[in-house]
């Protein structure tokens, strides 16, 4: 059910300060996929600025789309109100959903990732509208509550629904916490792809003294892992570091020294750059698995899932706008990078040019997650500069 936020936080003038909205969002314990009213808070704020807001629910996931204006170009902000669990709340210096400010830091789950950035962009819109009025194009928000979870019923389905309704976007700014230690260090203009693999080798159990009566699954599993690790995937690609394959688990579940197990299992992940596609990597792994199992009478089975393809948004006008805005407010000119994990930008890149820039991410997902109040204000000013310059520099 729709629950509006406090009127004191949803007035046009109040929204020019990002801190109250960031606190109101953090106070909704929106642990994936629960929304707990966080999108209601944002909806009330955006409607007070004149945005038209629509909600989209896919299974247990709630999503929000807001737009101000009906012309192009369309500058959209994308993000998520869902957060990871707080863990041991007693270990937090302040309650994780109290949104307290201490020593200049806003403490709470989602402060850095990424409710602080959502509040900053809303405040930037309020400032822009207060000073310049409606833009010659359109501003939009694409917000999900499923980024930290499976990411099945969130941004991906929301964008598909908006496409089917005729919505288009020219540029999208994702508010992920892209800066490692200081605001203004890094803009993400692409992301590596990710492939999760599970290898299941099934043989026949038996006594170690009679190996001829058993089929040991461990040697073919180790052979396959060695084959995969032996290949140097690449030496990097433009704007990307080299791809890497990491074995994350080897499980046999055999407590006995004198028993050959019946099954052995391993997990691995590949973070790959634009030198590869997920399908190409899957075919290579399947070929190696077939070779490793040639002389093994048991079964070698694979479960391979590509959770995102590598992509790169070429540096250009949009990334330069963000760099210039960040430099003007922080004195730092952000580097254009592709490092880190995946984000919902992997879905957005199919619909518009996308870049990511937000707060400092050093504390995200950690006990005591926090964001400097001064950084949230500075990010608001950066976003406001981006909005101001965008509609002067970009034409449809």
Secondary structure layout plus pairing:
Layout: H1 7-10, H2 18-26, H3 38-48, E1 52-58, E2 61-68, E3 74-80, E4 100-102, E5 105-107, H4 111-132, E6 138-144, H5 155-164, E7 171-174, E8 186-188, E9 190-191, E10 193-202, E11 206-207, H6 218-230, E12 244-251, E13 259-260, E14 263-272, H7 278-292, E15 299-308, E16 311-312, H8 317-330, E17 335-337, H9 345-348, E18 353-356, E19 370-372, H10 373-393
Parallel strand pairs: 3-6, 3-7, 7-18, 8-17
Antiparallel strand pairs: 1-2, 2-6, 4-5, 5-19, 9-16, 10-14, 10-15, 11-13, 12-14
Gyration radius (Cα, Å) is 24 Å
DSSP helical segment count = 10
Helix content: 25-40%
Helix/strand-derived category reads alpha+beta
| Spatial sequence of strands, sheet with the most strands | 1-2-6-3-7-18
Query: Low-confidence parts lasting 5 or more residues at pLDDT below 50?
Result: 1-5
Question: What's the pLDDT, averaged over the residues?
Answer: 95
CATH fold name of the largest domain, please?
Aminopeptidase
Gist of the model:
With about 400 residues, the protein is an alpha+beta fold. It has helices spanning about 5-10, 20-25, 40-50, 110-130, 155-165, 220-230, 280-290, 315-330, 345-350, 375-395, and strands at about 50-60, 60-70, 75-80, 100, 105, 140-145, 170-175, 185-190, 190, 195-200, 205, 245-250, 260, 265-270, 300-310, 310, 335, 355, 370.
């Amino acid at each position: 059910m729709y629950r509006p936020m406090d009127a004191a936080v949803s007035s046009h003038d109040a929204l020019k300060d990002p801190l109250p909205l960031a606190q109101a969002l953090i106070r909704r314990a929106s642990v994936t996929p629960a929304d707990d009213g966080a999108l209601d808070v944002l909806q009330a704020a955006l409607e007070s600025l004149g945005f038209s807001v629509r909600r989209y629910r896919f299974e247990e996931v709630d999503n929000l789309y807001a737009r101000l204006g009906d012309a192009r170009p369309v500058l959209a902000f994308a993000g998520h109100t869902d957060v990871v669990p707080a863990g041991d709340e007693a270990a937090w210096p302040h309650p994780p959903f109290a949104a307290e400010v201490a020593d200049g830091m806003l403490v709470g789950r989602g402060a850095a990732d990424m409710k602080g950035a959502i509040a900053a962009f809303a405040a930037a819109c309020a400032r822009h509208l207060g000073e310049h009025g409606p833009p010659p194009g359109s501003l939009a928000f694409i917000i999900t509550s499923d980024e930290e979870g499976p990411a099945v019923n969130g941004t991906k389905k929301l964008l598909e629904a908006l496409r089917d309704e005729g919505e288009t976007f020219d540029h999208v700014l994702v508010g992920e916490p892209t800066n490692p230690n200081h605001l203004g260090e890094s803009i993400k203009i692409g992301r590596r792809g990710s492939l999760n693999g599970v290898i299941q080798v099934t043989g026949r159990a038996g006594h170690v003294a009679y190996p001829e009566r058993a089929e040991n699954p461990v040697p073919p599993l180790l052979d396959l892992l060695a084959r995969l690790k032996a290949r140097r995937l690449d030496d990097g690609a433009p704007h990307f570091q080299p791809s890497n394959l990491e074995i994350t688990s080897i499980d046999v579940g055999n407590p006995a020294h004198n028993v050959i197990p019946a099954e052995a299992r391993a997990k691995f992940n590949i973070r790959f750059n634009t030198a590869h596609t997920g399908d190409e990597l899957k075919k290579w792994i399947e070929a190696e698995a077939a070779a490793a199992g040639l002389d093994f009478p048991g079964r070698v089975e694979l479960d391979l899932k590509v959770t995102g393809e590598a992509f790169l948004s070429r540096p250009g006008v949009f990334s330069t706008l963000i760099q210039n805005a960040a430099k003007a407010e922080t004195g730092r000119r952000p580097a254009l990078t592709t490092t880190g994990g995946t984000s919902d930008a992997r879905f957005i890149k199919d619909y518009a040019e996308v870049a990511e820039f937000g707060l400092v991410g050093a504390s995200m997902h950690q006990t005591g997650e926090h964001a400097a109040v001064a950084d949230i204000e500075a990010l608001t000013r950066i976003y406001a500069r981006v909005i101001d310059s965008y509609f002067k520099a970009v034409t449809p």
